[in-house]
């Protein structure tokens, strides 16, 4: 059994192609059903996000499955294979597992360490579990990948620090005010930037968002578009400023709206309540000198971009420790995979021993019939335990073997020594022969 | 009442270690003199210990507040930004610690005053010497004034954030003054 991955990602394909290969639109479940109906794969999970479309399957014949997956991608999305193939990437077995672990860790993301991907990987596995296309192999693989994601998140700084300007602004606001729910936010400027920022604040749980613009109608329209925000007129600006905790300026004005003197005047009645001003306008809406005022914390777009750059640099430095975690977990998954290689042999060996035990008990039946039910139960149990004990150590040793070559060598030897393949072909026949032989000897 | 804030542990632990180290390193005096028997003395000492512990906590929180504020203000988000809770949480923790400390300090001082009135009869010169000129009592009073002002300013003047944080640090510096130099070097304070 082999693990196989075929897919595209932001590294290999342009956005136009990624859009065409998006499974979300038609539903991952129906795609999984269509895929399993082709019967080239044993298990399948489809991971489809805006940055990647990847199919993980378990198959017996890697090359055949790969060809079929490419055909499936083309047919399902009505795409010419020739346009598809140059952008596809693939991997098999541990390389495919390593790829998934890197994805779950956020190492393969467009923005390294972004937090959504782990949830998307979980969703992908959940969808496959729902339609029963994920079996023991992929269940194990995906649960290991969740563990990788969690470890990377908790043991490294790969996901820490905001890496977009709007998140940097919100995380700063949180560091100043704690819970943002009870805070009031004033957005000056009803243009696209102002609207986006207000939306972002809303989505972060701020209840009171007020939008003020030189044109009251414009402010009202934007407030309505956001939903749950209020519009206010330009004349009330000073009052509004005094009552706000967070001020976002995003107007197209050529000269600063908030001069140092104006901010100073409005800070006096606030006493020691800090005011967080985020100036995302270019040219700037707030005089830089306003940031010198005691309780004013002023960040302009450049400052926010600088913190984002710092955070990105910090994430880069965490990549090595995240890769270390991926390597450790791959090692562990590989050990599991190798132990699986021994499973058929272990099962056959156990079956062989059990068959011998049963046939011997049957043979002794006439002699045992005189025993009490209790004593017979004991005989049954003793023989069973004997077989268990005899097999315990070999089973463990076999599962713990280092590499797959050794596993197959041992399996080969066991199959020969115990005649496992013959037993598999005609178990009863062998047992009969065995019984006949032993009976002859006892005669 | 709770802030459910665990991140402060790192900053408070060194304080606890230092406080533990003091009694561990200094040999104790086993026999208590007769003057010190009675429940009032125990109440006096334990409430003041609680008060000073709260002030120590407030002092540490105050200092971390100032450091975090400086980082945000200077737009250099680093060590404290990554580790401390929000300014708002630090501020409310500070004010709570001050309120608790102030209550215990007040109780401790009132009980101490009642106790000195009761033990005046003893001939022990240390008891006789207790007055406002006793540096320990004087500094405690100064502390009480500082913290009363801080609690008042926070409630009535709308002080908060950096100003109260600085006051907490200052108050605790005075408390330390009472503990270390006065207790060990100034013999005219009441040491038992």
Characterization of the model:
With 443 residues, chain A is α/β, with parallel strands linked by helices. Chain A contains 19 helices and ten strands. Chain A has helices spanning 15-20, 28-37, 62-76, 81-84, 93-105, 116-130, 136-155, 165-177, 192-203, 216-226, 237-243, 260-267, 301-341, 343-363, 365-368, 373-399, 404-418, 420-425, 427-442, and strands spanning 2-9, 43-49, 52-59, 89-92, 184-188, 208-213, 230-233, 246-249, 275-279, 296-300. Chain A has a six-stranded parallel beta sheet, sandwiched between helices. Chain A has a four-stranded antiparallel beta sheet with strand order 2-3-1-4, sandwiched between helices. In chain A, α5 (93-105) runs antiparallel to α13 and α14 crosses α19 (427-442). The longest helix of chain A is centred in the last third of the chain and has 41 residues, at 301-341. Chain A is elongated. Residues 425-443 of chain A have low confidence and may be disordered. Chain B has 192 residues and is mainly alpha-helical. Helix content of chain B is 73%, strand content 0%. Chain B has helices spanning 9-25, 39-73, 79-83, 87-119, 125-128, 135-156, 162-185. Chain B is elongated, with a radius of gyration of 19 Å. The model of chain B has no long low-confidence stretch (mean pLDDT 78). The interface between A and B is medium-sized, with 21 and 20 residues.
The helix content of chain A, as a percent range, equals: 55-70%
Strand order of the largest sheet of chain A: 7-6-5-8-9-10
Oligomer: heterodimer
- Strand tally of chain B is 0
Parts with pLDDT < 50 across at least 5 consecutive residues of chain A? 425-443
In round numbers, the mean pLDDT of chain A is 87
Overall form of chain B: elongated
Radius of gyration of chain B: 19 Å
Radius of gyration of chain A: 33 Å
- Sheet with most strands of chain B: none
Based on DSSP secondary structure assignment, what is the total number of beta strands of chain A? 10
What is the number of helical segments of chain A per DSSP (H or I, 4+ residues)? 19
């Amino acid at each position: 059994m082999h693990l196989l991955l075929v897919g595209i990602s932001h590294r290999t394909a342009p956005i136009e192609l990624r859009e065409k290969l998006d499974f979300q639109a038609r539903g991952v479940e129906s795609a999984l059903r269509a895929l399993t109906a082709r019967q080239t794969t044993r298990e399948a999970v489809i991971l489809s996000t805006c940055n990647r479309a990847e199919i993980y399957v378990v198959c017996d014949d890697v090359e055949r499955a790969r060809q079929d997956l490419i055909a499936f991608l083309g047919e399902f999305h009505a795409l010419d294979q020739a346009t598809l193939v140059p952008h596809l990437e693939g991997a098999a077995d541990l390389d495919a597992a390593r790829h998934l672990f890197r994805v779950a860790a956020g190492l393969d993301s467009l923005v390294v360490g972004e937090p959504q991907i782990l949830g998307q990987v979980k969703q992908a596995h959940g969808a496959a579990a729902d339609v029963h296309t994920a079996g023991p192999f992929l269940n194990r693989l995906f649960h290991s990948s969740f563990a990788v994601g969690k470890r990377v998140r908790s043991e490294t700084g790969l996901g820490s620090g905001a890496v977009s300007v709007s998140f940097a602004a919100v995380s700063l606001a949180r560091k100043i005010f704690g819970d943002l729910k009870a805070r009031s936010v004033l957005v000056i400027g009803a243009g696209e930037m102002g609207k986006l920022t207000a939306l972002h604040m809303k989505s972060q749980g701020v209840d009171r968002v007020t939008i003020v613009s030189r044109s009251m109608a414009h402010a009202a329209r934007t407030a309505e578009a956001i939903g749950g925000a209020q519009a206010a007129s330009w004349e009330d600006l000073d009052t509004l400023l005094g009552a706000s905790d967070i001020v976002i300026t995003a107007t197209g004005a050529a000269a600063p709206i908030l001069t140092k003197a104006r901010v100073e005047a409005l800070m006096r009645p606030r006493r020691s309540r800090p005011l967080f001003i985020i100036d995302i306008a270019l040219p700037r809406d707030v005089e830089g000198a306003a940031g010198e005022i005691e309780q004013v914390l002023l960040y302009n777009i450049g400052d926010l971009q600088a913190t984002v750059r710092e955070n990105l640099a910090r994430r880069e430095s965490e990549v090595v420790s995240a890769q270390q975690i991926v390597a450790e977990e791959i090692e562990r998954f590989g050990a599991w995979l190798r132990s699986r290689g021994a499973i058929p042999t272990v099962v056959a060996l156990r079956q062989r021993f059990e068959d011998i035990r049963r046939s011997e008990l049957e043979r002794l039946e006439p002699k045992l019939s005189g025993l009490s039910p209790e004593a017979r139960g004991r005989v049954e149990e003793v023989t069973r335990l004997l077989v268990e004990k005899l097999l315990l150590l070999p089973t463990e040793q076999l599962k713990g073997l280092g590499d797959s070559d050794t596993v197959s060598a041992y399996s080969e030897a066991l199959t020969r020594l115990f005649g496992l393949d013959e037993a598999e072909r005609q178990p009863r026949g062998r047992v009969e022969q065995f019984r006949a032989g032993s009976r002859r000897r006892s005669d | 009442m709770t802030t459910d804030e665990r991140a402060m542990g790192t900053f408070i632990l060194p304080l606890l270690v230092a406080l533990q180290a003091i009694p561990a390193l200094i040999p104790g005096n086993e026999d208590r003199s007769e003057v010190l028997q009675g429940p009032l003395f125990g109440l006096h000492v334990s409430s003041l210990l609680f008060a000073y512990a709260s002030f120590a906590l407030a002092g540490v929180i105050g200092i971390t507040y100032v450091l975090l504020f400086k980082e945000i203000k200077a737009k250099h988000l680093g060590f404290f930004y990554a580790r401390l809770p929000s300014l708002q949480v630090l501020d409310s923790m500070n004010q709570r610690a001050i309120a608790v400390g102030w209550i215990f300090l007040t109780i401790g001082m009132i009980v101490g005053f009642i106790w000195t009135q009761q033990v005046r009869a003893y001939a022990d010169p240390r008891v006789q010497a207790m007055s406002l000129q006793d540096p320990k009592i004087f500094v405690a009073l100064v502390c009480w004034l500082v913290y009363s002002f801080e609690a008042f300013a926070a409630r009535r003047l709308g002080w908060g954030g950096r100003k109260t944080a600085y006051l907490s640090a200052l108050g605790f510096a005075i408390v330390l003054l009472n503990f270390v130099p006065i207790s060990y070097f100034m013999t005219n304070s009441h040491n038992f």
